[in-house]
Design a protein that fits this description.
Layout: E1 3-8, E2 14-20, E3 28-29, H1 34-38, E4 58-61, E5 66-69, E6 72-73, H2 74-80, H3 83-92, H4 98-110, H5 116-124, H6 131-150, H7 160-180, H8 194-203, H9 212-226, H10 233-243, H11 248-259, H12 267-281, H13 284-292, H14 313-329, H15 334-348, H16 350-354, H17 361-371, H18 379-399
Antiparallel strand pairs: 1-2, 2-3, 4-5, 5-6
Helix pairs in contact: 2-9, 5-6, 5-7, 6-7, 6-11, 7-8, 7-18, 8-9, 9-14, 9-17, 9-18, 10-11, 10-18, 11-18, 12-15, 12-17, 14-17
Length: 416
């Protein structure tokens, strides 16, 4: 029997609303006909209680601290697979066998060449520009190339466009880094792994040392853990733009712009800046008290999450990777000591425990990248590099969803 909820209004009108059940997760109240039958909207600022779509890609249980890609637990995926296998999983719905993986790597290599048009866009920016502003422009440039080739036709079947975005973004991000460092660009070596190739394009010969494999392994985990995260702000932006029929690369540029915000992808950069501020002060307790003061605008960056009301499962994995990197580097890392001190206090202090403000993925990813000598202004572009896979997958799913409509929220008007 179909589940239904009964909505009774003050005027005596009673409306039955269908209750939808997914594979797992909360049931969903279907209100799509509410306005047509009652003349009422719902009010949900920030969409905290609204399912905007149906999806089979990523599942999150924030109360239990669960994250799954295509039904696979994130801890198992991060432990037993490299990033290109995860790309394949998200795009095609299943992990590849050896032959499929081999062919997929060849496909990535074939589509990885960055056009002169994009290279010229990078070179046109001043060296002082924030890397995210350049990355937005690069994808906007790619949207022009897409439009020239396909016109207004939205090709929702050919995955090559999506794979080309995933294949080119490491080279683009590396070129942006080298541009702002005033260094020559380095060509891809497609016989290397995805993460190894990226680090080599960033650092060149400086990357070829006895720590290279350690850095590749850690970065691969960061990529895997950031590949997708359900209907977050940047993914929602991509679905919104794509719902109007905009091409993939135009939609991706909107996602990158959204990710730039310090409340979203920019949080890992903000974590490092905060840790450095605490290091200069030398007083962790002072910043803990500032965070607990409701009148003080200061917030502990890297703690708490909109969805997770338990320990972020990605943070558990990255905490181990962070310790491994710093132990093998034999670094007396002051930032990590401060981070561990903050975590220890936050997990015991009643203020943080009551509000379930646990460390999230941004808390450790920035420390790892800092140890690899990646500057903090490149943290968010690297987040975008990893999330491009999820964005592409979500865009294709939306384009192939026969029930999808142009996104058009309503409002509660309070003006004159």
């Amino acid at each position: 029997m179909d589940k239904k909820a009964l909505l009774e209004l003050n005027n005596g009108l009673k409306i039955e609303l269908p209750i939808l059940s997914g594979t797992i997760g909360p049931n969903v109240l279907n209100i799509k006909d509410l306005y047509r039958t009652t003349g009422l909207f719902t009010y949900d600022p920030g969409f905290v209680s609204t399912a905007s779509c149906s999806s089979s890609i990523t599942f999150i249980d924030g109360d239990e601290g669960v994250l799954k890609y295509r039904g696979h637990d994130i801890a198992d995926l991060a432990e037993n697979n490299n990033f290109t296998a995860i790309i394949y999983l998200l795009l095609y719905g299943a992990l590849p066998n050896l032959e499929q993986h081999k062919k997929f790597l060849l496909k990535i290599g074939e589509l990885s060449k960055v056009s002169e048009q994009v290279i010229n866009v990078i070179k046109a920016f001043p060296k002082t520009a924030h890397p995210m502003s350049i990355l937005i422009a690069c994808f906007a440039s790619l949207s022009a190339f897409y439009h020239e080739r396909y016109g207004n036709t939205v090709n929702s079947e050919n995955l090559d466009c999506g794979i080309s975005a995933i294949a080119q973004v490491p080279a683009i991000v590396a070129m942006i880094y080298r541009h702002i460092k005033n260094q020559e660009f380095i060509n891809a070596q497609n016989e290397l792994s995805y993460s190894e190739n990226f680090l080599r394009m960033m650092f060149g010969d400086a990357f070829n040392n006895d720590k290279s494999s350690l850095f590749v392994k850690a970065l691969d985990k960061i990529f895997i853990l950031h590949a997708d995260h359900e209907q977050n702000a940047s993914t929602a932006a991509i679905r919104l733009v794509g719902s109007a029929g905009s091409n993939l690369f135009a939609s991706l540029s909107a996602g990158i712009a959204t990710l730039w915000g310090p409340a979203h992808g920019g949080a890992n950069e903000a974590v490092i800046n905060m840790l450095r501020e605490i290091e200069q002060s030398g007083d962790i307790g002072k910043f803990i008290e500032k965070a607990k003061d409701d009148k003080d605008p200061f917030k502990l960056m890297g703690f708490g999450h909109r969805i997770y009301k338990n320990y972020d499962p990605r943070a558990r994995i990255l905490k181990g990777a962070c310790n491994e990197v710093l132990d093998k580097l034999e670094q007396d890392n002051k930032l990590l000591k401060i981070a561990k001190g903050l975590e220890e206090v936050a997990l015991k202090d009643e203020y943080f425990v009551m509000r379930k403000l646990y460390p999230n993925v941004d808390f450790y990813s920035g420390i790892i990248m800092n140890a690899i000598d990646i500057p903090s202004n490149m943290f968010t572009p690297i987040f975008a590099l990893a999330r491009t896979t999820g964005w592409v997958t979500q865009w294709y799913e939306m384009m192939n969803d026969k029930e999808a409509k142009i996104c058009r929220p309503r409002q509660l008007y309070v003006g004159e």
